[in-house]
Design brief:
Layout lengths: L5 H16 L5 H4 L26 H22 L8 H19 L6 H18 L3 H7 L2 H14 L7
Helix pairs in contact: 1-6, 3-4, 4-5, 5-6, 5-7
Length: 162
C-alpha cells in the first residue's frame, strides 16, 4: 500500500506560499532593520566575477528567485492528480535549484544574502538525496531558512517570492 504524499506536498507549498506572502513591497521600510553586513558595499549589487557569474546581492536574489520559481513550477507540473510527486521529478527540481544557486555563489562575497542562499541551497540538496525528497523538504528547517533569505534579499533592496 502506497501512502499518500499530498500532505508533504501541501506542507511544502504552504511554506513557500507563506514566504511569498511575507514579501514587503515597501523595501525602504525594511531597510532600517538590516544589520551592518547587509549594508556592506556588495549589497548594492556590485558586479560579476570572472566568467560572468553573479556575485552581487541583488543579482543573486534575482537568480534565487528565478530558480525558486522554476523549482516550484517543476514540482507543480510533476504533481499527480492525487497530490503525489514522483521521487525522480522532485530530485530533478531540487537538484536543478541547487546547481543554479551554487553556480551563482561561486564568486560571491560573504554577505547575509550569500549565507542565506547557500543555507537554502544546501537544505534543498539534502532533501534531493533523501528517499522521499518532498517529505524531507517539508520536515527540514526550510521555512526558517527561506525566511532568512527573504529578509536578507529585502535588506539588499530586492523583494523575492520564495
Amino acid at each position: 500500500m502506497m501512502r499518500s504524499r499530498i500532505v508533504p506536498v501541501a506542507l511544502l507549498c504552504a511554506c513557500l506560499a507563506s514566504l511569498a506572502a511575507c514579501g514587503d513591497s515597501n523595501t525602504e521600510s525594511a531597510a532600517p532593520k538590516t544589520s551592518a553586513i547587509a549594508a556592506a558595499p556588495s549589497a548594492s549589487g556590485g558586479g560579476t566575477g570572472t566568467g560572468g557569474k553573479v556575485t552581487g546581492d541583488k543579482e543573486l536574489c534575482d537568480t534565487v528567485n528565478k530558480a525558486g520559481s522554476t523549482m516550484k513550477n517543476g514540482l507543480s507540473q510533476a504533481q499527480k492528480a492525487d497530490g503525489h510527486v514522483e521521487v525522480a521529478d522532485a530530485k530533478k527540481a531540487f537538484t536543478a535549484f541547487h546547481a543554479t544557486v551554487n553556480e551563482s555563489l561561486v564568486f560571491a562575497e560573504a554577505t547575509e544574502v550569500t549565507v542565506a542562499a547557500r543555507a537554502v541551497a544546501d537544505e534543498v540538496a539534502k532533501a534531493a538525496t533523501a528517499a522521499d525528497p518532498i517529505s524531507a523538504a517539508a520536515d527540514a528547517g526550510f521555512a526558517q531558512l527561506s525566511g532568512n533569505l527573504t529578509t536578507a534579499c529585502q535588506a539588499a533592496g530586492v523583494t523575492i517570492n520564495f
